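queue> pop job 88
queue> type: inverse folding (structure -> sequence)
queue> payload:
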């Protein structure tokens, strides 16, 4: 039996930031990874997605500027794009593992299974620690219906060598909306089937629907209020049948119906760790599970905050600091922005625009009139751009939502204003951003 002070199960963003936070301590720490070191973000998520999205955004922007001075709009060469993506990310897991080792963390390949609250088994060998951190993230959900065996998931899309002619996405969450944007821009005919009445329910309706309208103009079809009930295979084509009787043909079907906590290989039945109804790990305000000395961080935990890299990083940094310094302070989350890398992008932060519209405590200011002047977004011909701001009774900016080609960078400029509760006067007396900048759009400019 090998003994450590702390064992990390999973080696994604949560584990990485935990390791950074513990750097320089005398604790003996082991990171165990069953698949690829680095976890979802650099291997199956944000980073390869943003690589593909960068090309797509440039192409779609150039198409919008045709006849405004761009002579020939560009198009996507999917095969070269994918070949480049694969070459760029090939060495990522090895580089990530080296990152752990450089931080003084021992690494181990294999799936960890609990034997009891303080012992895990990996490849037949046992490892023990007083403190164990579960950072196993989430994985794509697999729906179960006749023909569901023909579906692919987001990991497959990010590795797709040849572009399908027709693609059907099941679900219209962030994963689906981003990947539909990619495949459609590259030339696939994309349809999206969604149970609910609109996509990305966690985001402001007005801004999501603004993006949906743009996606529709580019030929993406949406089928709301219905789920997929059956897929039939006819030679190399599939017939996708929905609960509303819609029939769609496709040569590629993506199950993008959501992500579930990665707990199935953990042997949690051998511990006191408890799961929520959704199957995520329940933790208290100290990120400790029901089993004393067993903690959890990142996407795997049940929480109100969005399951994103910044959330995982914040939790892991907090936990690393608590565990190596024997602290006992509850976690207090900061303002965390959320976004979808669609075209146009959708982003939001702070108090929800939808909730604020029905609440007397807040005032929602829709800044759309600013954009009709063809000024703020003119260089990108972003005519449909929409930005809404939420102010509280003290006239402090407390929330924002935007749909535009620049929504993510814009809101990254707004997040400090909200997080620091800064007033217009404080901002203008402290710094002036390069013009034109988001503070102009928010009328925060002095
Ligand atoms: C397509 C896609 C795009 C995304 N884009 C963004 C984005 O743009 N911005 C953003 O902020 N977030 C994005 N996310 C979310 C982001 O990837 C996650 O929030 C983040 O990776 C969570 O980190 P984590 O460490 O909690 O889990 P993960 O990164 O999932 O890492 C968990 C690791 O644990 C391993 N593991 C599981 N079980 C075991 C076991 N029993 N033993 C050993 N190892 C195990 C897994 O193999 C995995 O490597 C995206 C996600 C997806 C799927
Ligand atoms: N840009 C980013 O930051 C980014 C990108 C991708 C993923 N993520 C993270 O991953 C999480 C998961 O995203 P997701 O899109 O996988 O999940 P999701 O839960 O947000 O969306 C899944 C969608 O599928 C629908 N659905 C479920 N079953 C269905 C069925 N049978 N038929 C039709 N529709 C069905 C749901 O109603 C929902 O709208 C996000 O919430 C986010 O935390 C973030």
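queue> result:
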């Amino acid at each position: 039996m090998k003994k450590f002070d702390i064992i990390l199960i999973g080696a994604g963003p949560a584990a990485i930031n935990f390791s950074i936070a513990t750097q320089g301590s005398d604790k003996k720490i082991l990171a165990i990874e069953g698949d690829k070191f680095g976890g979802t973000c650099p291997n199956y998520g944000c980073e390869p997605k943003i690589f593909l999205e960068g090309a797509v955004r440039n192409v779609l922007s150039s198409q919008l500027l045709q006849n405004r001075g761009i002579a020939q709009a560009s198009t996507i060469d999917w095969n070269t794009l994918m070949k480049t993506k694969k070459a760029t990310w090939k060495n990522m897991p090895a580089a990530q593992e080296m990152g752990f080792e450089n931080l003084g963390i021992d690494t181990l390949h294999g799936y960890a299974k609990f034997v009891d609250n303080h012992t895990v088994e990996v490849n037949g060998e046992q490892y023990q620690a007083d403190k164990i951190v579960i950072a196993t993230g989430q994985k794509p959900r697999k729906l179960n219906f006749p023909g569901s065996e023909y579906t692919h998931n987001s990991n497959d899309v990010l590795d797709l060598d040849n572009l399908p002619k027709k693609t059907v996405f099941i679900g219209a969450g962030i994963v689906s909306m981003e990947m539909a944007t990619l495949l459609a821009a590259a030339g696939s005919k994309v349809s999206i089937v969604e149970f609910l009445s609109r996509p990305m329910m966690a985001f402001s309706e007005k801004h999501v629907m603004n993006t949906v309208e743009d996606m529709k103009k580019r030929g993406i079809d949406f089928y709301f209020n219905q789920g997929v009930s059956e897929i039939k295979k006819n030679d190399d084509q599939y017939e996708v049948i929905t609960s509303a009787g819609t029939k769609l043909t496709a040569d590629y079907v993506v199950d993008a119906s959501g992500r579930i906590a990665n707990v199935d290989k953990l042997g949690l039945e051998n511990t006191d760790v408890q799961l929520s109804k959704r199957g995520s790990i329940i933790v208290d305000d100290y990120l400790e599970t029901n089993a004393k000395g067993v903690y959890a961080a990142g996407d795997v935990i049940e929480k109100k905050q969005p399951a994103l890299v910044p959330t995982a990083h914040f939790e892991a940094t907090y936990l690393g600091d608590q565990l190596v310094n024997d602290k006992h302070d509850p976690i207090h989350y900061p303002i965390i922005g959320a976004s979808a890398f669609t075209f146009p992008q959708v982003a939001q932060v702070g108090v929800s625009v939808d909730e604020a519209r029905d609440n007397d405590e807040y005032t929602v200011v829709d800044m759309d009139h600013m954009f009709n002047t063809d000024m703020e977004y003119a260089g990108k011909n972003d005519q449909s751009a929409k930005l809404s701001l939420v102010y509280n009774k003290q006239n402090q900016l407390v929330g924002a939502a935007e749909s535009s080609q620049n929504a993510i960078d814009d809101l990254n400029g707004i997040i400090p204003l909200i997080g620091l509760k800064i007033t217009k006067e404080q901002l203008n007396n402290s710094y002036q951003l390069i013009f034109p900048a988001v503070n102009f759009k928010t009328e925060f400019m002095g």
